[in-house]
Design a protein that fits this description.
The chain has ten helices and twelve strands. By secondary structure, the chain is an alpha/beta fold. It folds into two domains: about 5-100 and about 245-270, Leucine Dehydrogenase, chain A, domain 1 (Rossmann fold); about 105-240, Rossmann fold. The strands form two sheets. Strands 2-1-3-5-6-4 form a six-stranded mixed β-sheet, with helices on both faces. It has a six-stranded parallel β-sheet with strand order 9-8-7-10-11-12, sandwiched between helices. α1 links the parallel β1 and β2. α1 crosses α9 (about 240-255), α5 (about 100-115) packs across α6 (about 130-140) and α5 (about 100-115) crosses α9. It is globular. The chain binds 2'-monophosphoadenosine-5'-diphosphate. 2'-monophosphoadenosine-5'-diphosphate binds near residues 129, 152, 190 and 191.
């Protein structure tokens, strides 16, 4: 009998996860199916209870349920505790294990696929919401020379940097105070691109930058990437590799075999320029 997996979110029609996990299952010969669940708003627990009762083995969780998943879990990884959000769950009897693979997927994409180590580098992270929280610990584990977190609401950047301080060199900054600073890698973890907006980052941060990375996927040349491109940044990336890598991490966690991601990245890549 096939093992059952799914992604739950609302809306969910846009999700690429069934296609990605379908390709991974085929490539690794796993007997499983993977579907989409549109969870009713306010009805996360009921929907997940029903999925488990029907024999479901694991779920991916997307907006707006990542915090609900964290609350639903009985066992949380350190990354989930820190992010306050989960993007994968595994069911083992009464146990509900929760993981957050977004940040690991991002780091794996940058270091492995894009060949840009973070170790010893000056790294700028824009945003201090859920996406930035997920990246914090995986980034610091790579031991950058310094991680600077800039956010419109400065207090949120300050709070996040304070949490991160136990793992590495991290500080907060306003956008205006970035003017005098240069970074090797710049990541946009704000949700500005989803509305076609540009976070107020000064172009000067890109003066010696090797990689500008937009965590959102499939938006083409966003205002952030356009600014980086016009400022002469050599390499631009969006979150397609992060998407493929976080899925591979979840797949390995569930099935005990890590799939190759190149084919998925090739299929989903949308040219940026
Ligand atoms: P997500 O889960 O996508 O990270 P979120 O938790 O709502 O979403 O966080 C959104 C982030 O994008 C925040 O850091 C937000 O900044 P504020 O904390 O100041 O609100 C940031 N953001 C959204 N729109 C932005 C814009 N136009 N310019 C700069 N930052 C923006």
């Amino acid at each position: 009998m096939q093992d059952h997996y799914a992604v739950i979110g609302n809306p969910i029609a846009q999700s690429k996860s069934p296609m990605i996990h379908g390709m991974y299952a085929q490539a690794t010969g796993q007997d499983m199916d993977y579907n989409k669940i549109e969870g009713p708003l306010g009805g996360f627990k009921t929907a997940v209870d029903a999925f488990r009762a029907a024999g479901g083995c694991g779920l991916n969780i997307t907006a707006p349920f990542k915090l609900d998943a964290c609350a639903y879990a009985t066992h949380k990884s350190k990354r989930v505790e820190l992010a306050g959000a989960a993007n994968a769950m595994k069911f083992e009897g009464d146990k509900v294990l929760a993981e957050n693979f977004d940040g690991i997927g991002l780091v794996r994409d940058v270091t492995h696929n894009l060949h840009m180590p973070l170790k010893g580098k000056r790294v700028l992270l824009l945003g201090a919401g859920g996406a930035a929280r997920g990246a914090l610990l995986p980034f610091l584990e790579e031991q950058p020379a310094e991680l600077v977190i800039a956010n419109r609401t400065l207090q949120k950047a300050f709070d996040l940097a304070s949490i991160g301080a136990q793992w590495g060199r991290v500080r907060s900054s306003s956008y205006a105070d970035l003017e005098m600073h240069r970074f090797d890698l710049v990541f946009n973890a704000t949700s500005a691109s989803l509305c076609g907006e540009l976070p107020p980052v000064p172009a000067s941060v890109f003066a010696r930058c090797n990689l500008a990375y937009e965590l959102a996927y499939g938006k083409g040349l966003t205002p952030f990437l356009r600014l980086a491109h016009n400022s002469g940044v050599g390499q631009l990336a969006d979150g397609v590799g992060m998407l493929a890598e976080q899925a591979a991490e979840a797949f390995a966690w569930w099935r005990g075999v890590r799939p190759e991601t190149q084919e998925v990245i090739k299929v989903l890549t949308v040219p940026l320029v």
